[in-house]
Structure formats: structure tokens, C-alpha cells
Amino acid sequence: MTAHPPSEAGPSGAPPTGVPPTAHPPTDAPPTGVPPTAHPPTDAPPTDAPPTAHPPTDAPPTDAPPTVGPSVRLTGVSVGYDERPVLEDVNLELAAGALTAIVGPNGGGKSTLLKLIAGLLRPWTGSISVLGGAPGARAHDVAYVPQAEAVDWGFPVSASDVVMMGRYPRLGPLRRPGRSDHEAVAAALEQVGMATLAHRQIGALSGGQRRRVFLARALAAAPDLYLLDEPVTGVDAATQEDLMAVLDAEAKAGKTVIATTHDLASAAQHFRSIVAVNRTVIAQGNADLVLDTDVLLRTYGGHLLFIGERAVLLDDAHHHDQPAPGEVHHHEGDGTPGRS
After folding, report:
1. Which of 103, 108, 129, 292 has an alpha carbon 20 to 30 Å from 299's alpha carbon atom?
2. b/e for 239-273, b at 16 or more Cβ within 10 A?
3. The pTM is what?
4. Which 8-state DSSP code applies to residue 301?
């Protein structure tokens, strides 16, 4: 049985009254109760300025991914909790449009890696670039969906209300959601197959339906980078296929999708690239990397059981690197969350 590192506290500043946390990493927010400003003020030209010239005719299509540097880059990064290291000397680079699965054993640092990229943890050593800047600098362009959601399931909030939370960082101080925000929420719910349950109280949904709603919240934010911790863990096969189809479409649109998973078969089937992690980056490559016996041995070690030439992974799917007290995990079934 794999030993787990000590408990890790989740990000502070959870919304009041039992509402699920927003899908974005924390920013330097204004006083409590005021949504953060999504964008810095625009240096707009004077009203009598001549109109902007039209772009050249050979410009790329508007839906093409921007030709910029890596979406995510980590160089020589180490981090831990208290004085206990969890990740050491991590070097990783992912381009825009990547659909990447992070695989590795429990306690190997998968969730911690996402939190570093989201700006929820600061590295002890090394440097991190996210969307061309420091982690958190473009927080409104990053959607982070943790595996565990601290939710008061009895609170009278609907699926639509939860998804609207993905729009808050873009609203600005004291602004109420407008028509475009409601349209974005409706479109996101439609994408994940939850439009007919938009007004259903969140606690009345099954585990798989909740995962759909949390992904819709991320979609409504219209981010450039998705950071998803076990997005399809504990859901049925149909839900898994539906959610991965949505993420695949986002990646094809030029968005960067990074998700942790314990399911190697799903990683090989649904993702285009793999990052194998166990205290550091063991290997990075195409999806067939999960079929490489040497990579599996170096990543999972004693977690593998060989039956003939076939490797069987012995791992508990429902633990984090640092499970916080009272974390709630979603599983398909009657909708009752289990606690770690």
C-alpha cells in the first residue's frame, strides 16, 4: 500500500454559503464579495482617432491557435509541503493545443503539478511560465477543476448557477451577468449534455452529472488552458466518452488541456500525449508511451504486477498527493460523495 504525504490544504477563499469554488486559480482579488476584474484597462484610442486598419488578407483564420511559445513550461522545478519534497527537478514543456494526460502512482505528484501550473503553489526552485507569463498572471484564462470539490450539497444552488461561476472572473467589479454570460452558460451545459437539468439542484445530481456540471463551469469561462484533476474518475463509460469528446474538441480549437488520470487505458485511447510522473517527470511522449514496459516500471515500480508479459497496475484511484481533511470525492452511483 502506497504511503501518502501529509494532508495538503486546498486554496483559500472558497465562496460563502456552501457554493462550489470557482474554476479559476485565485488572483489578487478585490474586497470580499466583489468579483475580480477579468482584464486590465484597455489603452483605447481617442474617440476621434481614425479607424483601425484591416488585417492583411494572408492572416491566419480567427480560430487558428496562436503562433506563440509553449503554453506551459517548467524548468528545474522542485516543490513540497512543509519540508517534505513532492516534486524535484521537473522539466516540462507543452504547446498550445495539447491534449495531455498526466499519469503516475498515488503520491507521485500529479495533483501537485497541476497546482503549480495553476499558481496555487509556489515552487521552491526553478521557473514556471504559463501562457507566456507567471502562474496566476492570466488567471482568467486558466480553468482549474480539482478532483475534490468542497460543496454543501444541501445548498439551494442549481446546475446553471454553478456554471455561471465560471463567468465571474470576466465580469468585473459589481457587474451582473448579462445576456452573453447567460448564453455562454447555456452553451456550456448543452456541450456536456446537461441542458435539460440546468435548473436541477446540484445536490440532486448523480456523481457523473456533477462532473459534467463542473466541466461546463470550466467551458463557460472560455479559458485558453484547462487543468483537470481526474476529470472522468468514477463516472460511467458513456459519461467518460462524452466528456473526453468535449475536451478533444477544445484541444483541436487550440486550447491546451492537461488532465491527470489513473486509467492508463483511457489515457492511451483519449489523449494525444502522455507525461509520466513520479516525483519528477519520468517520460514524455505520444499516447502509446503507456504501453512501454520500461516507462511503466520506472513510473510505477512496485505498483505493477506482471502476468506473463502483461503489466497490471495496482493502484488506488481515489487519492491525491496531499488529501486535505474533509475533501469530497465524486463517484458514479447514487450521488452520495465519499470522503477521503
Report:
1. 129
2. bbebbbebbeebbeeebbbbbbbbbbebbbebbeb
3. 0.72
4. G
Residue of 69, 141, 66, 153 lying closest to 329 (CA atoms):
153
> Which grid cell sits at 289?
508511451
What confidence tens digit (pLDDT) does each residue in 27-68 have?
443 333 333 333 333 343 443 444 444 444 344 444 444 435
* Domain 72-152+222-339, CATH homologous superfamily name and number: P-loop containing nucleotide triphosphate hydrolases (3.40.50.300)
246 closest CA partner among 276, 284, 214, 268:
214
Q: How far apart are CA 219 and CA 107, in angstroms?
A: 28
CB atoms within 10 A of CB 35: 20
Domain boundaries, the chain: 72-152+222-339
Model pLDDT for residues 55-107, shown as the tens digit of each residue: 443 444 444 444 357 999 999 999 999 889 999 999 999 999 999 999 999 89
Q: Which residue has 479559458 as its cell numbers?
A: 223
Alpha-helical runs (H) found in the chain: 110-118, 159-164, 168-171, 179-191, 207-220, 237-252, 264-270, 293-300
- Reference 96, options 61, 142, 55; nearest CA is 142
Tell me the C-alpha distance between 45 and 37, whole Å: 21
CA 338 to chain centre: 21
Taking alpha carbons only, the member of 215, 254, 256, 251 closest to residue 233 is 215
The cell for 83 is 519540508
Q: Which residues make beta-bridge pairs with 144?
A: 227
In whole angstroms, give the CA distance from residue 265 to residue 127: 32
Rounded to an integer, what distance in angstroms lies between the CA atom of residue 7 and that of residue 17? 24
